[in-house]
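To: structure desk
From: M.T.
Subject: fold request, one chain
Message: Could you run this one when you get a chance? Sequence is below, nothing fancy, just the single chain.
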Amino acid sequence: MQTRDAPPLAERAQLFHALSDETRLGVLEMLRGGERCVCDLQDDLHAAQSRLSFHLKMLRDAGLVRDRREGRWSYYTLNPERLQAASECALSYLCCP
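Reply: Done. Structure tokens follow.
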């Protein structure tokens, strides 16, 4: 059963899928310190560019991160509003109604 204010099931599934990978969690952890260039994420996570791009797209599609381009560089930041909503969604599964 879905409550009136809960995101649709597909949106919740996308959110939890985005959080279900060690690399994606590592990206989120790194972005807690502020905006980061993709090249910095690659170096710190020891990830190939193609693999990291895949994970960043999943996080972006779930709304957990935002990106911006500056010349040939891409920079990522956390999306605090979406992270707050994600936290509330996760807690709804752990708490009694």
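Reply (cont.): The CA atoms of residues 16 and 64 lie 11 Å apart. Let me know if you need anything else for the meeting.
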